[in-house]
Specification:
heterodimer, A: alpha/beta, Rossmann fold, six-stranded mixed beta sheet, 14 strands, 12% strand, elongated, B: mainly alpha, two-stranded antiparallel ribbon
């Protein structure tokens, strides 16, 4: 998908050549202009919906902000269109910040519903405000000009539109193929895993929200100077729905899917508007009927869209070149453990209403130590993990890691301290490669921001992150799978990938939630060897595990929880013969 | 501010709010059972209203034919899905539900259309036509993707809305219609005048809310619907046919939508696309109710109606802007109280 530059060049070349084709009907040029305008918005939606998982029905409103900004400024105040370009983008962006702040925190279906609500509200606002010309809109907008060349005809503004499309496609692909891009792509997998590696989900969501809005604003700006008049109709919820349709039909996860979808929809609409009335000699919006039906049909037959279907038909080139292993990430500055204690849980309790999930539990994890937390189902092991990693606050008691008391500490801050974890239910991004997934673990160790990645100024940082990821993958023995999609691995291997991802954070303390579940015997032995090696290199490991054989052979110390209470602690030999433990596990009367 | 005006606006707002409450309840019902956010709810309103108005004017509404076409499609889908294990009894049942039923309704409509039938007959016909459309809509558009995410279902719902609205234009034309009132009685409690129609709106709303409550609390079907809402797989494992639950939910929603349409079409002129906006206001109420709470939704709907009435009096230009902006503080509240534990569902 990425790193292949020549298809983009070829595409740019073809698009440049189109207006010069002899006898090209002007009709097709107008269509291409419309495709380009639509593709810009769809590209934003690809990032927002397909990649980030945030569905917006309100993108047309952002086109409206872009279009009306330039319309007002160029007609009422006589500004040059080129001057209003940054202003249009700025206005779209600012409204995106305002709307995004209230919208992106919404979970699940509230988000699309929220966008419908403000999409409708803004449409009515456009059509009622005096200075925007109410329902009539604003006309006599000046054309774009370069020197003395006025871009009035469709085949001159064509170049402006398609330059914008190709430039934005390039920027979007750059953004996706970066540290920020991985953070965005991780959003769809839920916020807990993202937060555990220092990603700030609301911030990442707001970023894509603004980015999509700015692309829509750019499309609106171009539209205003292309039509040279604006009115509220094209910025309503209907158009917003259509943009989403464009992205879905093209393939919502793919930048070029947005362009392809725009082409399909614009051409189809033109065709339907032209021919349907002839076929059915009826009145009105026959094309919307067909449109709606096709949308439903498409979701039933090919929810992935046309682009992935198309690319699956072509042989894939080799994936990206392996990361240069010479680039090295600087080792993180670590907090020195106090008195050789890495983690101290002191009388910690967690209550959910009347249920006491963790009851007055105390234990330590020392340096270079493997501690196992065992207990029957519902004993409070995973809750203890969630307390340590800052996902849940303790009800009473204290937990401190590396000498710092974790009070109202966010998961991101816990990770920064040097505590990294894996999950009982694997949380990898299935359609990202193993390498990219593991690189998310190093998120906090990179610096490059969104702007740097847009313009490809992040390559040094990026190479170091990927090299570190490759090193950790090799360490856990999955080098052969590094460029495979994470979703294609077996569950056991995915657990190992999670360990590599945690290692990428350069932790002092590794928390593993049932790492051996789903592993075969040999894999378990390899995992045990790896954990011992990590311990010997100075790391501490706290693991929850059900496989007694695995735990007893590996752990230096075992802590047993039952119904939220610690019932035993000691070396494996002591635990094996402890009557309380036997009773808890076997229910036998000792 | 004048008390008479306030009372008048309140009355107007409550009448509209009652309609929004009905739609909001239907939306909550459908979402709870099928996870579909029913954007086409507004089309049920329009179809109900305009079918009723068309019948009352002595013509045959196109929706009766649409029901036959959709039923045939649903039957075809049924046959196709079960092509490897076709049992005669099952085919017969599907045929009866999807083909014979709408054909019978169409035949009845054709037979009765140009006679002077009482209003009750027109209403019954309209409800059965729109109800069957709702039934088949679920079978055709949503049952095949019932297992997918809320998002996919939402986009499909938008597709249905587009198609149904376009079809509405073909059937009913661009001109608005009004239907005959249910009752022409009226009385005055100074300074307010109550028409029989508005009383009917209140009565029907209350009756439907009570009916839904009874259905969900005391009947096995209602409990099955709730079980489907909580856990599809679990419901299937204990023998509830979740596809049936979905169809029942859509049937109820379509009937409720059609009732709302029939209630308002004597009060305001309805166009083929009016339903969408009315449905969306029911929607605002449903969202305020969190898409789960029936009483909260009903209260929110009254609030929406009242806010709308007052803003149409004081800032009529920005009526819609204000109504849809109502949602923003609610969304804000919800975003401040972000639930942390919605994770394992994806």
């Amino acid at each position: 998908m990425m790193g292949q530059r020549w298809p983009v060049m070829l595409f740019a070349l073809v698009m440049t050549a189109i207006p010069f084709v002899p006898h090209m009907p002007p009709f097709w040029i107008v269509l291409s202009d419309n495709i380009g305008l639509s593709a810009l918005v769809a590209m934003g939606l690809v990032l927002l919906t397909g990649v980030g998982g945030l569905t917006s029905f309100g993108q047309a409103a952002f086109c409206g902000f872009g279009a009306y900004t330039t319309a007002v400024l160029t007609t009422t105040y006589g500004l040059s269109p080129w001057l209003t370009l940054p202003l249009s983008l700025l206005v779209s962006g600012l409204f995106a910040v305002a709307l995004g702040l209230i919208t992106v925190r919404l979970s699940g279906h509230y988000l699309p519903l929220g966008t419908i609500a403000w999409g409708l509200g803004l449409f009515y606002l456009f059509s009622k405000l005096e200075f925007l010309g109410r329902n009539d809109g604003i006309s006599r907008i000046p054309p774009l000009m370069i020197g003395s060349l006025k871009m009035i005809s469709p085949d001159t503004i064509y170049f402006a539109i398609w330059t914008a499309v190709i430039l934005c496609a390039w920027l979007t692909m750059n953004l996706l193929d970066s540290r920020t891009g991985r953070a965005i792509r991780a959003l769809r997998r839920g916020h807990i895993a993202a937060e555990a590696f220092g990603i700030n989900p609301p911030q990442a969501k707001l970023l894509v929200f603004i980015y999509a809005a700015v692309l829509a604003g750019l499309s609106g700006w171009l539209y205003a100077h292309f039509q040279r008049a604006v009115n509220p109709t094209p910025f309503g919820i209907q158009t917003g729905i259509e943009y989403l349709f464009v992205a879905v039909i093209g393939g919502a996860g793919y930048v070029w899917g947005g362009v392809l979808g725009a082409a399909i929809v614009v051409i189809l609409k033109e065709f339907l508007q032209g021919y349907l009335p002839l076929l059915f000699h009826g009145e009105g919006q026959l094309e919307t009927i067909v449109f709606g039906m096709m949308l439903v049909l498409l979701l039933q037959l090919a929810p992935g869209g046309v682009w992935p279907w198309l690319t699956a038909r072509f042989p894939r080139g080799p994936g990206r070149k392996p990361a240069r292993s010479s680039s090295v990430l600087p080792v993180r500055k670590k907090f020195a453990p106090i008195d050789d204690v890495v983690l101290q849980v002191d009388h910690a309790s967690k209550r959910f209403g009347g249920l006491i999930a963790v009851n007055d539990v105390s234990f330590d994890v020392g340096t270079r130590e493997i501690v196992a937390l065992i207990g029957p189902n519902g004993a409070g092991k995973s809750t203890t993990f969630n307390l340590i990693t800052g996902i849940l606050p303790v009800s009473s008691g204290t937990i401190s890691a590396l000498g710092k008391v974790l009070h109202r500490t966010t998961p991101q801050e816990v990770t920064k301290l040097g505590v990294a974890r894996t999950f009982q239910h694997v949380k990898l991004v299935a359609d990202m490669t193993v390498l990219e997934n593991v690189a998310i673990g190093a998120h906090l160790r990179g610096k490059a921001g969104a702007l740097a990645s847009l313009f490809r100024l992040d390559r040094g940082d990026e190479a170091r992150l990927l090299a570190e990821a490759a090193r950790q993958i090799e360490r856990v023995g999955l080098a052969a799978q590094a460029h495979m999609l994470a979703g294609s691995l077996s569950l056991g291997q995915q657990r190992i990938v999670e360990i590599a991802r945690a290692l990428c954070a350069d932790p002092v303390l590794l928390l593993l939630d049932e790492p051996a579940a789903g592993l075969r015997h040999l894999e378990k032995q390899r995992l045990a060897a790896l954990l011992r090696e990590l311990r010997d290199s100075g790391m501490s490991v706290l693991l929850v595990e059900h496989d007694m054989g695995f735990v007893m052979n590996l752990a230096d110390r075992v802590i047993v929880l039952d119904f939220g209470t610690k019932i035993a602690e000691g070396t494996p030999e002591v635990i094996k013969t402890n009557p309380d433990v036997i009773r808890a596990y076997l229910g036998a009367v000792a | 501010m004048n008390t008479t005006i306030v009372l008048f606006l309140l009355q107007d707002g409550i009448t509209n709010g009652a309609i929004y409450a009905l739609l909001g309840l239907a939306l909550v019902l459908v979402f709870a059972v099928t996870r579909v956010i029913l954007i086409p709810q507004g089309e049920f309103v329009t179809y109900g209203a305009l079918t009723y108005a068309t019948l009352a004017s002595g013509q045959v509404p196109g929706t009766a034919r649409l029901a036959v076409a959709m039923g045939a499609l649903a039957f075809g889908l049924d046959l196709f899905m079960h092509r490897r294990r076709l049992r005669p009894a099952w085919v017969g049942r599907s045929l009866a539900l999807n083909v014979l039923l709408p054909v019978a309704i169409l035949a009845l409509t054709l037979a009765l259309a140009d006679r002077q039938t009482p209003i009750a007959v027109d209403i019954a016909l309209s409800l059965s036509i729109v109800g069957s459309i709702g039934l088949y809509l679920y079978r055709i558009a949503f049952a095949p993707i019932a297992h997918t995410s809320v998002l996919v279902l939402l986009i499909a719902a938008v597709g249905c809305h587009l198609a149904l609205q376009g079809i509405g234009l073909v059937f009913f034309g661009a001109e608005g219609q009004r239907g005959p009132p249910l009752s022409t009685a009226a009385f005055t409690i100074d300074p307010l005048r109550f028409t029989g129609q508005s009383i009917a709106v209140y009565a029907v709303t209350l009756a439907l809310i009570a009916g839904l409550w009874l259905l969900f609390s005391f009947t096995l079907y209602g409990k099955a619907l709730r079980a489907t809402a909580v856990n599809r797989l679990g419901a299937r494992l204990v023998g509830i046919r979740t596809a049936l639950s979905g169809q029942i939910a859509f049937l109820l929603a379509a009937v409720i939508g059609a009732i709302s349409g029939i209630l308002i079409v004597p009060i305001t002129t309805l166009y083929y696309d009016t339903g969408f906006l009315i449905g969306l206001k029911g929607f605002v109420a449903a969202i305020i109710g969190g898409l789960v709470s029936y009483p909260l939704t009903a209260i929110a709907a009254l609030l929406v109606g009242i806010v709308e009435a007052f803003s149409s009096f004081y800032a009529s230009n920005f009526k819609e802007v204000i109504v849809f902006a109502l949602i923003i503080p609610v969304l804000l509240l919800r975003s401040l109280a972000t639930p942390a534990a919605d994770e394992e569902k994806d």
